[in-house]
Amino acid sequence: MYGALGGPRLLLRRLREVMVEPVSPQARLDKIVVHIAANMVAEVCSVYVLRADGRLELCATEGLNREAVHLTTMRSGEGLVGRIAETAEPLALSDAQRHPSFSYRPETGEEIYSSFLGVPILRGGNTLGVLVVQNKARRSYSDEEVEALQTTAMLLAEMIASGELQSLVLPGNDIALRRPLALKGSAVADGVGLGYVVLHEPRIIIKQLVAEDVKREAERLDTAIAAMRESIDMLIENGNMGPGEHHEVLETFRMFAHDRGWLRRLREAVATGLTAEAAVERVQNDARAKLQRRTEPYMRERLHDLDDLANRLLHKLTGQSFVAAHEDLHENSIIVARTMGPAALLEYDRAKVRGLVLESAGPSSHVAIVARALGIPAVGDVANIIDFVEPGDPLIIDGGTGDVHLRPPPDVERAYAEKARLRARRQEQYHKLRDVPAITKDGVTIDLHMNAGLLVDLEHVVETGAISVGLFRTELQFMLSPQFPRMGEQEALYRAALDAAAGRPITFRTLDIGSDKILPYMTQVQEENPALGWRAIRIGLDRPGLLRSQLRGLLRAGAGREMRIMFPMIATLEEYDAAKALVQRELELLKLHHREPPSVLKLGIMIEVPSMLWQLDEVCPKVDFLSVGSNDLIQYLYAVDRDNKRVSARFDVLSAPILRALKFIVDKCGAAKTPLTLCGEMGGKPLEAMVLLALGFRGLSMSAASIGPVKATVLAMDLGEVEAFVSSLLRRSTGGRSLRDDLTSFAESKGIPI
What we know:
By secondary structure, the protein is α/β, with parallel strands linked by helices. It folds into five domains: about 5-180, Beta-Lactamase (2-Layer Sandwich); about 180-200 and about 325-425, Glucose Oxidase, domain 1 (3-Layer(bba) Sandwich); about 215-320, Enzyme I, Chain A, domain 2; about 435-465 and about 635-680 and about 680-754, TIM Barrel (Alpha-Beta Barrel); about 470-630, TIM Barrel. Helix content is about 45%, strand content about 15%. The strands form three sheets. An eight-stranded mixed sheet has the order 7-14-13-9-10-11-12-8. An eight-stranded parallel sheet has the order 21-20-19-18-17-16-15-22. A six-stranded antiparallel sheet has the order 3-2-1-6-5-4. The longest helix is centred in the N-terminal third of the chain and has 24 residues, at about 215-235. The protein is elongated, with a radius of gyration of 31 Å.
């Protein structure tokens, strides 16, 4: 019944003309349904728009009773239209009233129509509405007609996404695309951010859906597919990554790029009269709609692969940049991305960025470290956030709780605006504590140090009142560099860091790479369990040239000044002896070349491998200081991967076994008179800091943002009282249960801010 392929192409052109006419949204929609009905030789054409409350509202019709427009609604899943919205799949019936899902609505007058064809209006795989055509006579709709109606629905999706139809629905009923959403992720970097969505990888805006020359579009599509395949081949073959699971993943990705079914659907979409870009979007819309409704992890992974392929193909077709134009950044921007490297975040104007939301990045990721350093609130692990947002959408994030509010209602916006104001006032109060010594109510002095990893961090040393930089993560320079930094570049960075610290000491941790910290220019070694594998000092000792280069840069930068060097991931005394021997060789080399050495050189190690707890008697006399790396030490004590959401929350850091282990370290170091600090995340949380001080720690190193809150805790506590309570609690505690509730109640009863 449907004519030559000119039919859908002619319809799309006419609809395009209607889309730019200077008429009201309702008039535009009314014209659209008339054109669709005429073109498809249908007696009825209706558009239903999904509202935020989950109901589908009839917004325009040609053929049904006009009085039903904006009055007829149905739930998602109710009736034939509701079924299409729920399944996101087309439905073609020759006798609609016999279908078990048919729902009779007397106000529409549709009982005289037998044949029914409905398709979902999709955007990013999400259902925005349903487009329906009907006929009185019983007939079977052809595949070509289904395709044509699906293609037409793309135009309606564009119209809905623009927000133009919001004015049509009844007052108080937002359309689904604009509905408020409350999402939950992982707390990555503390702080509250209110702003507007900026996509890190902007969507391709397809300005032309209708092909002028179908043959030419088919050729463009084939050329882009070939170019995409070639780029994937080069990625695999020139990656020098060797065999392993990662290689299998990439090979699977390459297999998808050659998938005949996917390619056939792309070419069929072009044949209906779409441009190559519109064909890619159309096919990916359908794929997302189906795969999003599957629960199997494999299918979800396949969805990500197909998303990536579609994006690559669109960029090949359009030549558009893959990253947001930073110069067009809004004054209150919240960056939203599937994932992001640490260098990419640094490219944005910090003054304009109010927050960061990521689909896949947790608190221990590299970009999280940079976000905390820059003071940018961040939330990670927010599933499918890219599918829900549009550029410019209002967004609120809470980096302390992991809450994300997309298009927040006024009451939520007011609540978070007040929370941001309260936070700002608290920060001002903390700022006033900058020059107040961190001394407990009973006169015990506590040393508060700051963690850093970038030069930008060091701006905060003076303003926070930190007495030193207790941990400088040198690997961040390596991670952000496009190639291995030369010794001279390293020396320049370390010297600049010492200068920026305004006379305060800096403890430089040697390169801690491996595990999740992979340098882009180094061959990745595949390991069954990288967190327990070839990393940190193990790499340095196996590749002494790498470690010596860094030590040389540090020692030269420290000429005439105090230099503190700390070795990570030390598991045996012999490893420390070997690292110390390399330092000694570099000192002799300085002397040979008549270079000035540091005026004071102190060497220490991080206590993060449990084996070191039973070597403390031998280690303490040999080192100048020790620092507990609580992040790794705790995950190794409990055999819990802190990046694995299934088990990371299984145990609490404030449980008796962990606190006893930490107390053991304090007692050993105290007996040997070895200076001790703690530089993990635990030390930057007020309640945990209170407990650590009760265990005997007198030095804690933390992020700049944590120093104010922890100092407020120190000033409010009577350390003797806290020590007595914690000691009693540990004596009474059995098993591995959390002591958090008991400790919280105690702190609150004593007026200690936590």
